[in-house]
Amino acid sequence: MGEDKSQLIYHGKSQRDHLTELLRPYCNVVFWSVNTTQEMELETAGRLQLRIVDAFDIQGPLNGILSAFKYDPEAAWFVVACDMPLLTVKSLDALVKGRNREKMATVFYDSDGKLPEPLLGIYEPAFRPILHQAMLAGEYSPRQLLQKNDSQLLTAPDIRELTNINDPTAREKLGL
């Protein structure tokens, strides 16, 4: 994208602010997963949003999930990617309602309906050691880890809500 996707304006406000408001009814506390550069930018801007800074020397979303578990290993973590501007309470409600605490995670099938969507889901505490071992073994794909472990897979109520906007062309086509 060339810029921080959480700062893009959708719905008349930054995606960060929009998702924080969207998640508040579902979470006791809403944290933002950030890298060290983003942490410094938030500090400079005086943003008070609670955040968890990447704690591991790996690239990608697994770092954020593992860092959250490092912060609180007993919590179930509700993970939402910042690049899903069409996400609404319809999908969040369906995810919470379909949650299976006996599984390692509860996620939707991706927009193709074939693979798990790792960046919109609830990760249970029992998954933490598996994720950590995978990282030590050089396995960094949350999607592959969900496929290899006992996860609850749900069909999204509106597949369009899972749309990821990762480049300017996709954002332009979205028309928001």
UniProtKB/TrEMBL annotation:
One Gene Ontology biological process: Mo-molybdopterin cofactor biosynthetic process
GO MF annotation: an example: GTP binding
Every MobA-like NTP transferase domain range: 1-149
Gene3D superfamilies cross-referenced by the UniProt entry: Spore Coat Polysaccharide Biosynthesis Protein SpsA, Chain A (3.90.550.10)
Keywords (A to Z) from UniProt: Cytoplasm, GTP-binding, Magnesium, Metal-binding, Molybdenum cofactor biosynthesis, Nucleotide-binding, Nucleotidyltransferase, Transferase
InterPro entries assigned: MobA-like_NTP_Trfase, Molybde_CF_guanTrfase, Nucleotide-diphossugar_trans
Protein name: Molybdenum cofactor guanylyltransferase
Organism encoding this protein: Spirosoma telluris
Organism phylogeny: Bacteria, Pseudomonadati, Bacteroidota, Cytophagia, Cytophagales
